[in-house]
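We store chain and fold; example below:
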Amino acid sequence: MSNYMTVDKKTSKPIMKGNPDKLWIHGKVLLVDLKRWVINVWYLFITAFRKFYDDECFGKASSISYITILSVVPVLILIYSIGSSLELTKDFFLGTVNDKNDNIIHYFFPAGGKQEKIIAEYLKDFTENVATVSIFGIILLLVAAVDIVLTLEGSINSIWRVKKGRGILQNFLIYWTMLTIGPLFLVISFYVTSKFGSEILADRVFSKFFFPLLVTWTGFFLAYQLIPRTKVTFKAASIGALIAGTLWEIAKFGYGFYIKEVGSQTLGLLYGPLYFIPISIAWIYLSFALFFLGAEVSYLIQFSEIYKKRQYKKIDHQNFLLYYLLNSLYHIYQAYENGKGSITLRELSKINNLSRLDMEQITLSLVNKKFIRMVQVDSIKEYFPFKPMDKTEMIELLDLVTDRKQLLLSEKDIRVKEMFERVVKKLEEGHQKEFANLSYKDLLEGQRV
């Protein structure tokens, strides 16, 4: 019985509690809240896909797929070694693929029975021959495994707009965790599934569906928490993992069905006995694309105003980039000279009427060119001038704006509007040389332009 219904003691019939008018109003409020939630979810996905495209995540997934092929062998060797110590059979990891698909190959490469068997046989040969590999060969395999971690980390950090580095010890701990604890977690997950999954539910629903889904969610969550060089909230990482993990499991089922029913015949005619190679690369590519999509969702959950306030727009060299550069520098210098010291990313976003995502793109370009310095305390980013105003060369600032044909005059009533208009006018007239040896301070005071 709900909070708005009760039971008449005499008739035993359900009746409404309270004032019907109030209940009607409360119901309308709930509908409004539900509508707002649905709209926010819709804009979350729309913004995530737009940012996914703007961040060139398809290209990231493509490049990392080929690196992954080199890293599969050392990682599976490590998984196989750990599994052997847990007394898991070879068949469970790399052996014969049966109709039940109780093996690790099916988890990562859902290509169907025949294709999985081919992949399993190749990987089994690799693991059995690892003892004959020279030290130099083992080092190359380890370098390949580390390379995929570095590439993956760089891709995730670009999504999170992070450039700061970690210390050597912290980097070592992160990489060691990903290369050892990650495979160990997977092995233990499969071990629990094989040992206890069938005992939990007789029809194996848990071990066949819920447990793999739980493993996937946990793996994505740990990746979103550990890889970015910034603090990621539990909420952001968990929601991103929930969405990406669920999509990955759905894609795994659909991809396996397609390959088994259609793709294997077509690809077999084109590639012959090597058709499992494009099958594997395509699946790895799709997996990383979904992984990066989940990372985009995590970012937007942490900075929710981007999609809730419909603030997302790609800031590039075509839309007022010069204006935002000048205006941001102006306020950073003002904060420093007025004794405040620094100005935060949130404050700059409010001043420029930009989302933190877009504002971070602007400040990142200024940090990279050493116009300003960024200091991060927890999740708060603060900015200081890197050098005095009279030492900031305008010609260097203009080099950040590569597509000067698309510069537009700002229609906003701002302090730097006149300075902005003077710069654009000179650029349109082809007088770029007049900015040589001209400092930001000179420009601000109206000198020589």
Remarks:
- Residues 94-101, 315-319, 402-415 have pLDDT under 50 and may be disordered.
- The first helix runs from residue 20 to 54.
